[in-house]
User: Fold this.
Amino acid sequence: MVINESLQTTNLISGAIEAPRYSCALAGAYSTAVGIFGVVPILHSGAGCGIGQLFGQFYGGGQNAGGPYGGTSTPCSSLVEEHVIFGGEKKLESLIESTVELVNGELFAVISGCVPSLIGDDVGSVIRRFKEKKPEVPIIHVNTSGFAGTSYEGYEYFFDAIIDQLLEETPKEKGLVNVFGIVPFQHIFWKGEAREIKTLLEKIGLKANLIVGEFDALENLKKIPAAEYNIVLSSWIGHKTAKKLEEKFDTPYISFPGIPIGPKQTSEFLRVIGERLDVSADVIEDLIASEEKRAYRLAEYVGDVLLIARPHPYFAVVSDSDSAVSITKYLANEMGYLPDLVQIADNPPEEARELINEELTNGLETPAWPEIIYEVDAYRIRENLKDRSFMFLLASSLETFISGPEFNAIHLTVSFPSYDRIILERSYAGFSGGLTLMEDVMSKYAGPL
Assistant:
């Protein structure tokens, strides 16, 4: 195993980055708002911020439109030179009032970008004045200037604003759990992942508050403090939110390195959850036995293709850390593929990298361990893929057209951006999700034997 920290990504300002696989903090908060049905984003920014995220964040998230409150229909203050000089607070006030009057939403989220932060607009005071006039309208402010971080941090900023501006202490509800760490659009399978995790938790008697991808947005958000536990499905995303909820509402949390894929990861996930939340071991084991039996029986139907057509090939992964861990573990531990190279492209903080490295080494049942590289720059990622042994490349659509000609590899898009496949509810989560990943990989080469 080799771990390569070739790019000092802790100081991103020092150099240009070609085609990073994420956007700015505004994009993360914006996509999170759009990903919670009933939340209406109000952008306080230049017009280009909103339309740029339609083409970048939303289309990149599996060729998805922004829906009724995203894309070209998003209310935006569309700041120009005049507002840089004289300020944009008055325009924002007018925009909020007209949006609330015209748009039927459950919660309004004012998301401010670079320009108001640079010129010093007091967005908080605008929100307070509006609340004094219309206290019955739920509204929050998310401060996400572009230099505040990436779209992953924007997800955290959104929930930070929810915690500070919306939530109140409520009695704990037995069996209720919140789930964090799935970033809408940034994680391209987010809708299907959220649905599958909710189904799994409900099958063992828990009440899952997923929030993203759910209706009844305001109700689900307001019951966050009532949860008995918070579950974080990421090595680092959602951890700040979970820690803040623990401090403010005394809600403990448990984290996993990513979405569980296939029987082994999902069974481990359920056993840990069951132990922490005092779910009957019999309930857990009965579900595992039933689902494993079905998943492994179905996998037998592709046994000939798996063992004859491409037995034990090397593969490489380029993706966010959560997807990289889960996909690599499934391919290695359940399909018998050999990991050659894993490039982590979401720039996780240093404290998360130790866990990621552990999962990608000691967490693998394989005679071959991958080289692990933390890299966000598309050019360097491409260079790192040269002169390798991999036959399969599971990456983003940025690698679609170079995989064959440059690396003689079979390509599958599994991470952001995904411009070459439409993704609605498809995902690799859970017991059946492993079969779906197996289908996607093997469909690339299966044919007459």
User: Anything to note?
Assistant: The CA atoms of residues 247 and 302 lie 49 Å apart.
